[in-house]
Amino acid sequence: MISRKKRINAFISLGKFLSDPQNAEYSQELSIAAHRKNNWFTPENTLESLAAIAEKFLSEEKLTAWVNQYPESGSSLKIGVIMAGNIPAVGFHDVLCVLISGHILLAKPSSDDPVLIPRLLEKLVEIEPEFASYIFFVDRLNDSDAYIATGSDNTARYFHYYFSKKPNIIRKNRTSLAVISGNETNEELFALGKDMLQYYGLGCRNVSKLFIPKGYDFTKFFEAIQSLDHLYLNHHKYFNNYEYNKSILLVNRTEHYDNGFLMLTESTAPVSPISVVHYETYENIETVQEYLNLNAEKIQCVVSHDNLIPAAVPFGKTQQPGLSDYADEVDTMAFLAGF
User: Fold this and answer.
1) pTM of the model
2) For residues 4 and 56, is the Cβ–Cβ distance under 8 A?
3) Domain spanning 175-303 has what CATH number?
4) Is 57 helix (H, G, I), strand (E, B) or coil?
5) At CA 190, angle to CA 225 and CA 213, rounded to 5?
6) CATH superfamily of 4-173
7) Do 41 and 6 meet the contact criterion of CB atoms below 8 Å apart?
8) Which of 72, 135, 191, 256 could bond 315 through an S-S bridge, CB–CB 3.0 to 4.6 Å?
């Protein structure tokens, strides 16, 4: 097994490589290659994702402190990882967990993200050649000793059926919500707009539903995010979704607010279509907290002020999870350390 120190140092070196301005050409070329395969992955979004990986996951201080919380696994097992592909390199955290734990990665990247994970791991092997015998890209995961699989609620049923006889982490659909007081600054409202719209709203950490105080006026919010319009009006896939969902709301005569690239409509449903965000009004915060408790299994994170919702994610920070912000709140590292 590669020593823990070597594993940590290799990922730290990868982080330094990604954040070094001298290697900007590498990241730029990678972002263009990813965009060719998936038009949702704009170069700007991919570069932002790579920068977040380097800063939040691979800094020496953060990575070392995180890994040292967990005991070393007793053996190297084959861990099959089925990755999502809704936002650029979203499967990287699982890859990091498996390899930093000393296990063998049997990776099945999403067909929506066939470039980023293989290329990042290619660079990792270049940094630390011993990883070459720990990384395999496969079409079938029959040889796995354990599984980590991310997908929709439908695919989760399939995963449970096929993977139930071995240790597993199986993730389903989740989404994120925001609770606002009505006293937010323009900067906070702009940041909330990014929480909704970054990566075109395709991530489980994107806000798809708002809780607003009764009588709230959306004018200030729409004014705060108006400068984002060019990012969404000029992206044909997003704008096609916007026009389609607008037509549905109009045909059904559903009341909604519309600023030309984002629509808000009242609904109890936590998940909304692309270009639409649902909202509910509240008179007291206790009813919101009750909703959050009842729907905890569907919620990835909640954006708000700490004094309104305890342990809430600050505005603008949903797409910047830390190493310990595990998907579905299942500690992947503890799972891997248990073998």
Assistant:
1) 0.94
2) no
3) 3.40.309.10
4) helix
5) 95
6) Aldehyde Dehydrogenase; Chain A, domain 1 (3.40.605.10)
7) no
8) 191
